[in-house]
Amino acid sequence: MKLTKYGHACVRLEKDGKVLVVDPGTFTADPVLDGADAVLVTHEHADHLDIDRLAAAASPGLEVWTCESVAAELSDVPVRVQVVEHEDEFQAAGFSIKVFGEWHAKNHPDMRVVSNVGFLVDDEVFYPGDALTVPGVEVPTLLVPTNAPWMKLSEMVDYLRTVRPARAFSTHDGLLNDFGLGLVDNYLRLESDVQKADMRRLKVGESVTL
Question: What is the extent of the structural domain holding 128?
Fold first, then answer.
């Protein structure tokens, strides 16, 4: 499986000629959806869901798997929307996917908590969305949020130490300037040394093979 980091909180997974895209939001540049066979969306916030981009990229047979609230947002988009929830399992574009989690992490006290589902792809890559969901299964590769209004550094470190992945790559880092990204690199390097694991930030457009 090939994993490519796109802007902020989006990744593209490729295997056997099939393409699965996770959370193509408004902070993500094209051509992330080119050739996509299926899309996973964790929740409704714009940095994870760009409705106009999905509408423009819609092609016959393109499937979107997501929570119920996002499905409602996509009611006028010509794609095949499938609603999933915690503990569901399904196949999309040749990938096996399990769903973990129900809610977005708490943010501003005046903002409602929205639905958020995390996806474990091929029992290899876990993407929690905007939450620190512990799936309770082995996670070889964790896409770990490293910066958000709803989290702090100690929570990120605790999450890594609880899940204990063999590999962890930064996600949700599009709000940071070069100084902030340098801090993320340093913190992941420190934790990588502690856990003797591969923990780092992929640059936008950088790929790894899993």
Answer: 2-202
In a domain, 147, yes or no: yes
**In which order are the strands placed within the sheet that holds 167-171?**
89-92, 95-100, 118-121, 125-127, 141-145, 167-171, 198-200
Query: Residue 55 belongs to a domain with what CATH number?
Result: 3.60.15.10
Cα–Cα distances (Å) from 155 to 71, 108, 177, in that order, read 30, 17, 21
Which residues neighbour 108 within 8 Å (Cβ) at sequence distance 6 or greater? 149
Using CA atoms, how far apart are residues 165 and 37, in angstroms rounded to an integer? 28
Q: Report yes or no on 181 lying in a domain.
A: yes
194: how many CB neighbours lie within 10 A of its CB?
12
Asked whether residue 180 is assigned to any structural domain, the reply reads yes
pLDDT band at 10 (very low <50, low <70, confident <90, very high): very high
Q: C-alpha distances in angstroms, 116 versus 158, 166, 183, 193, 195?
A: 20, 24, 27, 31, 28
pTM of whole model > 0.85? yes
